[in-house]
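User: Can you recover a sequence for this backbone? Please restate the input before giving your answer.

Assistant: Of course. Working from this structure:
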């Protein structure tokens, strides 16, 4: 699938993931689509980056399984800082119940790993457009 068929944008996305191969792929791909991308290698960094860039981060792509502060804890801390935070969950190994709990708590969606770029790009656009228009 050619890049011109993927939906891009100019928003800022914070990737929270502890796997270099995953973030390298996502950063390159999302920058190609026009997004600004920030990276946090763990949940503690994610909270710090989000806090120090108020109103600047349009979406957080949050891995569920990480050292220092896992996805669940990180999500709750981001939500405490900004009740309107838009979080797209991501994981290869997580229970449906844990995902359901976070979706109920206000997460915007869930992406299973391994990532497929058309799915990632489409889901990011869906969330950003949904919140922009309504």
């Amino acid at each position: 699938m050619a890049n011109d068929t993927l939906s891009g944008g100019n928003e800022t996305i914070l990737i929270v993931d502890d796997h270099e191969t995953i973030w390298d792929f996502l950063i390159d791909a999302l920058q190609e689509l026009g997004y600004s991308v920030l990276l946090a290698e763990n949940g503690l960094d994610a909270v710090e980056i989000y806090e120090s860039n108020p109103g600047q981060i349009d979406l957080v792509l949050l891995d569920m399984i990480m050292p220092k502060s896992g996805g669940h804890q990180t999500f709750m801390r981001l939500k405490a800082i900004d009740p309107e935070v838009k979080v797209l969950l991501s994981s290869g190994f997580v229970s449906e119940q844990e995902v359901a709990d976070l979706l109920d708590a206000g997460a915007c969606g869930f992406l299973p790993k391994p990532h497929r770029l058309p799915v990632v790009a489409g889901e990011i656009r869906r969330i950003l457009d949904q919140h922009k228009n309504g």
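That completes the design. The helical segments are 20-32, 43-52, 71-81, 96-104, 117-133.
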